[in-house]
Amino acid sequence: VEASRMAMITLLMAIAVTQSVRELHLDAKTKWPHDVVVHGKKISGILTEMYPSADGSFFLVIGTGINVNQKEFPEEVKKTAGSLALELGADVDREVLLASVLRHFLDCYDSFLETMDLSGQKELYESFLVNKGRVVEVLDPKGEWQGTAIGIEKTGELLVRRKDGSVEAVYA
Q1: Rounded to the nearest 5 degrees, what angle is found at the Cα of 84, between the Cα atoms of 79 and 90?
Q2: Are strands 135-138 and 58-66 parallel, antiparallel or unpaired?
Q3: Cross-strand pairs, 58
Q4: Chain-centre distance of CA 72, in angstroms?
Q5: Which residues of 73-89 are buried (b: 16+ CB within 10 A; e: fewer)?
């Protein structure tokens, strides 16, 4: 159960980053499950990890990288990476951006705590989903296959419609 909640928290942070970037008047989209893109270039990635506490409980660390004021990228990621400054043509105040991301995350998290799933944020996440309605490749251990991304489950899995019309929830 903790792993699925951890995955949902990652999606909440993706919503928060996307909303904050959109406040800068950029058409940010979410690439399921944890990347934020602008004009097809990745400007943010999120990695959530769970650690045990001494008292037997656990805590989460939500690592959120946002390319804010970078002007250059290494050759190997130049074609796929972007930054807010490059998109806007001006530097962004990182503290203002951070405050916005945290504000949006807390709003999302409050909604999450009411249901302990993404039902309160599902529609919003899907409106940001860059691959919604597009063909995606699923790398399944049982065999790769293609289908059309149609949205997410309230528990965060990507819903993909197979060619035969059946819908499968993809976890990772």
Answers
A1: 115
A2: unpaired
A3: 52
A4: 23
A5: beeeeeeebbbbbbbee
Length of the chain: 172
Total H helices, total E strands in the chain: 4, 8
What tens-digit pLDDT sequence spans the chain (172 residues)? 467 888 899 999 999 999 999 999 999 999 999 999 999 999 999 999 999 999 988 889 999 999 999 999 999 999 999 999 999 999 999 999 999 999 999 999 999 999 999 999 999 999 999 999 999 999 888 889 999 999 999 999 999 999 999 999 998 7
Q: Hunting for tokens 């270039």 — which residue is that?
A: 41
CA distance 26 to 82: 12
Other Cβ atoms within 10 Å of 42 Cβ, number:
17
**Residue given tokens 């045990």 in the structure block:** 52
Q: Which residues contact 6 (CB under 8 A, 6 or more apart)?
A: 48, 49, 50, 60
Sheet holding 35-38, edge to edge: 28-31, 35-38, 41-52, 58-66
Distance between CA atoms of residues 140 and 157, nearest Å: 14
From the centroid of its chain, how far is CA 26? 16
